[in-house]
């Protein structure tokens, strides 16, 4: 008998908690100014043009040849797809959306509840000209995009400040609008109720807050919310970011892995042994995960309430930590993993290219274009009609020549070397692009908005999906 109850995944951030302390810092002051070396920066963004800011020094990013070499595993088909993605830099990228719009996460009108097929979302600047979108990012109930000029647009649920801008009414949340940053942004990342932006100077800016099972946990301090981006107090250049539902990982240039956020299921990878209030304060401070000191970290991934870390010594090793109720971390013991534990049941660790985490399931992509599933398999999220949990990585046979994967909530996506999109998983949120039916076998996503367009990227939230596409004819000469 299947005891699991199907339900829509609606994060607790849907309802605003009035007792939280809010931070509104338009000057982007760091909440903890402990940098030993500082320099003066004058922001060129209009909203803060005349404000001089103290910032920690920018350290020149160092290239590690060994790391670059170890991360170069790619198939010929993946290289071809990457060439298709990167060619014709002047081509116009378009954002498509599908799924639920109950909090405005699709960026569509307030009278639109859902979209079953990918629909074009126009993102325009204040001058009404189309923005050139470079990157998309879906939080649980909000969305973000990064333009080629380094600007950030956000929309969706803003109850906990995840949009990084002040919204006065529901119309402000449903429409994509500029989130003012103090400097040019290079990458975007999002969790359930927070957004992280990395600047070209390798600083991390965050807005929103972390949540726990009891509601708002806070940001840096208990019950605090940052309604506008603030600097994350890590005095080293950031090279990688991975966001789970309620926590964040930051990998620095020196190889230190920091974590902060909620730690109820061990997702921070570090212990706390003091009073509850001080435990929360410790959780909310970015601190190194001591387990990985001395490890050469190649890549980090996170999602739901857990994370994965790929390291390199004489061989590659994969570690995971956090919630493991459905063995989504690759361990048969179905209980929280509070200290990073090596995943030993996967024989192709040296071939891992990417890991994508849903709420209770995981996808693994290797350099041969194969995809493996882990964790909860209900509703087709692992590409089959099985209902038992998968405790060790199992290949999804229907997926071949895959070059990218994405997961979120209870759905999964894969892109092959021809640019075809396949999705599978729970359908009641319409975020698979196939309507509201569960998809048990990887099925190609089709639609008018996908015709004659090349897929660039997919990002999956709790109830919605974002697609970044490009007109095929603009780059055909370079294929």
How does the SSE layout of this entry go?
Layout (H helix, E strand, L loop, with lengths): L20 E3 L14 E5 L9 E5 L8 H6 L5 H11 L6 E8 L13 E8 L11 E6 L3 E6 L4 E5 L13 H5 L2 E3 L5 E6 L3 E6 L4 E5 L1 E3 L2 E5 L1 E2 L1 E8 L6 E6 L3 E6 L4 E5 L14 H8 L3 E2 L8 E7 L2 E7 L3 E7 L14 E6 L9 E6 L3 E6 L4 E5 L14 E6 L6 E7 L2 E6 L4 E5 L13 E6 L8 E8 L3 E8 L8
Parallel strand pairs: 1-16
Antiparallel strand pairs: 2-3, 4-5, 4-34, 6-7, 7-8, 8-9, 10-11, 11-12, 12-16, 13-14, 14-15, 17-18, 18-19, 19-20, 21-22, 22-23, 23-24, 25-26, 26-27, 27-28, 29-30, 30-31, 31-32, 33-34
Describe this structure in words.
- The protein is mostly beta strands and 479 residues long.
- It has a domain at 13-58 and 141-300: Regulator of chromosome condensation 1/beta-lactamase-inhibitor protein II (Methylamine Dehydrogenase, Chain H), CATH 2.130.10.30.
- It contains 4 helices and 34 strands.
- It has helices spanning 65-70, 76-86, 170-174, 276-283, and strands at 21-23, 38-42, 52-56, 93-100, 114-121, 133-138, 142-147, 152-156, 177-179, 185-190, 194-199, 204-208, 210-212, 215-219, 221-222, 224-231, 238-243, 247-252, 257-261, 287-288, 297-303, 306-312, 316-322, 337-342, 352-357, 361-366, 371-375, 390-395, 402-408, 411-416, 421-425, 439-444, 453-460, 464-471.
- The strands form 9 sheets. A 5-stranded mixed beta sheet has the order 1-16-12-11-10, with no helix packed on it. Strands 5-4-34-33 form a 4-stranded antiparallel beta sheet, with no helix packed on it. It has a 4-stranded antiparallel beta sheet with strand order 6-7-8-9.
- Strand 26 (361-366) and strand 27 (371-375) form a beta hairpin.
- The longest helix is centred in the N-terminal third of the chain and has 11 residues, at 76-86.
- 52% of the residues are buried.
- Mean pLDDT is 84; it is low at 1-19, 24-71 and 474-479.
């Amino acid at each position: 008998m299947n005891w699991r109850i199907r339900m829509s995944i609606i994060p607790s951030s849907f309802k605003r908690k009035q007792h939280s302390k809010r931070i509104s810092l338009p000057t982007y002051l760091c909440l903890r100014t402990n940098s030993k070396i500082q320099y003066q920066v004058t922001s060129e963004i209009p909203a803060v043009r005349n404000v001089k800011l103290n910032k920690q020094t920018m350290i020149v990013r160092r290239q590690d040849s060994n790391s670059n070499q170890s991360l170069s595993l790619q198939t010929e088909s993946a290289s071809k797809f990457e060439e298709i993605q990167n060619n014709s830099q002047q081509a116009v990228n378009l954002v498509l959306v599908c799924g639920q719009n109950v909090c405005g996460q699709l960026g569509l009108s307030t009278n639109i509840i859902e979209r079953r097929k990918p629909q074009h979302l126009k993102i325009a600047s204040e001058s009404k000209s189309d923005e050139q979108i470079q990157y998309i990012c879906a939080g649980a109930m909000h969305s973000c995009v990064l333009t080629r000029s380094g600007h950030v647009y956000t929309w969706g649920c803003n109850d906990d400040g995840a949009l990084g801008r002040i919204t006065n009414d529901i119309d402000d949340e449903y429409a994509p609008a500029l989130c003012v940053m103090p400097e040019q942004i290079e990458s975007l990342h999002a969790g359930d109720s927070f957004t992280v932006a990395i600047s070209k100077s390798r600083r991390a800016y965050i807005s929103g807050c972390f949540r726990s099972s009891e509601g708002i946990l806070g940001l840096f301090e208990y019950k605090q919310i940052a309604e506008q981006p603030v600097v994350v107090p890590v005095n080293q250049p950031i090279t990688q970011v991975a966001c789970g539902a309620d926590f964040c990982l930051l990998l620095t240039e020196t190889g230190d892995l920091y974590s902060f956020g909620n730690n109820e299921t061990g997702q921070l990878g570090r212990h706390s042994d003091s009073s509850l209030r001080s435990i929360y304060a410790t959780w909310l401070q970015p601190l190194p995960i001591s387990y990985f000191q001395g490890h050469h970290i190649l890549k980090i991934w996170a999602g739901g309430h857990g994370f994965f870390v790929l390291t390199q010594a004489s061989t590659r090793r994969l570690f995971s930590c956090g919630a493991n109720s459905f063995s989504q971390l690759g361990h048969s013991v179905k209980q929280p993993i509070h200290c990073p534990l090596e995943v030993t049941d996967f024989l192709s660790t040296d071939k891992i290219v990417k890991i994508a985490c849903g709420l209770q399931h995981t996808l693994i992509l290797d350099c041969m274009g194969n995809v493996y599933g882990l964790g909860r398999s209900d509703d087709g999220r692992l590409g089959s009609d099985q209902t038992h949990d998968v405790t060790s990585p199992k290949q999804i046979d229907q997926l071949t020549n895959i070059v990218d994967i994405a997961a979120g909530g209870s759905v999964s996506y894969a892109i092959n070397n021809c640019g075809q999109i396949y999705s599978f998983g729970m359908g009641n949120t319409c975020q698979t692009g196939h309507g509201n039916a569960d998809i048990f076998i990887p099925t190609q996503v089709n639609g008018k908005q996908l015709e004659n367009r090349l897929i660039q990227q997919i990002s999956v939230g709790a109830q919605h999906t974002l697609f970044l596409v490009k007109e095929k004819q603009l780059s055909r000469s370079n294929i």
